[in-house]
Amino acid sequence: MIYCGIDWAERTHDVALVDDSGQLLAKRHITDDAAGYKLLLDLLAEYGDTTENPIPVAIETSRGLLVAVLRQGKRKVFAINPMAASRYRDRHAVSRKKSDPGDALVLANILRTDMHAHRALPNDSDLARAVAVLARAQQDATWNRQTIANQLRSLLREFYPSVLEAVATWSNGLCRPEARELLRLAPTPTRAARLTRTQLEAALKRAGRKRGITAEAERLRDILRADYAHQPPLVEDALGKQMLALLVQLEAACTAADDLAEAVEEAFPQHPDAEIILSFPGLGVQLGARVLAEIGDDKARFADARGLKAYAGSSPVTRASGKKSSITRRWVKNDRLNHAGYLWAFSAITASPGAKAHYRRRRDQHSDWHAAAQRNLFNRMIGQLYCCLQKRELFDEETAFPTELAAAA
Question: What is the pLDDT of residues 163-180, one digit of tens each?
Fold first, then answer.
């Protein structure tokens, strides 16, 4: 048995091959281009790599062109956490020396000694991987949009509180097209106070508003003309220019999030698992795509539902030493899936009578805090999702929550 370790870098990579006894068979320094990839594949073929019996590879990343080349065929690629690789390095040298060829050798030896303790990259379909790219990008764009909106809100509190009061009743607040159009039209409170009802109506129409334009324009004019404290004129103008710069970033972030959301809505329904995922209460297209992106469609990835629950961070973890024992929530988990699970459980409480009854039972009978009760609900529902995906069945309320529904009745 031959094992391969690759120390990944931006421009070049170091490769090491070892056998069952740990003897170094070969090492190479390759470039991150097509020529380097061909040299790597030729080296693996020289030491017995075939289509039916490929050599397993350990590398410290799970993405990139090099990983895509290695994942072709039946080859198992193991993405080793850099922290885990650092711990393994101490087994070979107590002097704490470090080199790129040495790290490649450490990665190869990780597979030689403990390959059973590490999980290979899942064998997901190309469509599932494409959905994962879009869903994660949309999630990042949403987070980036909220970050910029928070920065803009913090700036407006310093000199423009009237506009914050004006958009307070709108969902999504500063991210709405009406709010962005209003700020573009009047970047300072002094200019906002001079806006007429006709100008406000035109701004609302440009933002795409269809109903209640006259009443909304009247409300905005009353708020913007109310009595507020002002910064000195020069300072106010400078803050207005700073606000416009942030507004450009916010508009770009909103456009990116919307475009990626449309791409997700187009790609996710094409997946065979989409119908099952969308049958669960609380899961829409965007949130369902995020769940699929993290769990994939490789049915052999998780041995049972408990493995998926631990991966999602919803199941508790027990820490015991001597006479001391504690049960706490997991800190090492898939953060994206855990975040999607929090939103999923929150939505399911209102979308499913059984989920709401389960949540209330955790709050009332077990004295759980809100987050703990939601995490318990997510733990149960993601286990049900695993079973439905394995059996190719849709979600059934009576099967999922028979006890809770009977108690609620």
Answer: 999 999 888 889 999 999
The rounded distance, in Å, linking the Cα atoms of 2 and 19 is 5
Tokens of 103: 């790290």
What residues contact residue 391 under an 8 Å CB cut-off, 6+ apart?
Answer: none
| 47, 17 Cβ separation under 8 angstroms | yes
Taking the mean position of all CA atoms in its chain, how far away is CA 112?
Answer: 32
Q: Does domain 3-117 have CATH number 3.30.420.40?
A: yes
Sign of the dihedral through C-alpha 295, 298, 300, 305: positive
Domain boundary assignment for the chain: 3-117, 130-266, 275-408
* DSSP single-letter state for residue 116: G
Name, in order, each residue with C-beta under 8 angstroms of 106's C-beta and a sequence gap of 6 or more: 5, 85, 88, 89, 92
Residue 187, both tokens? 């970047």
- Which DSSP helix (H) or strand (E) runs through 65? helix 65-70
Q: Is the pLDDT of residue 93 over 80?
A: no
pTM for the model = 0.87
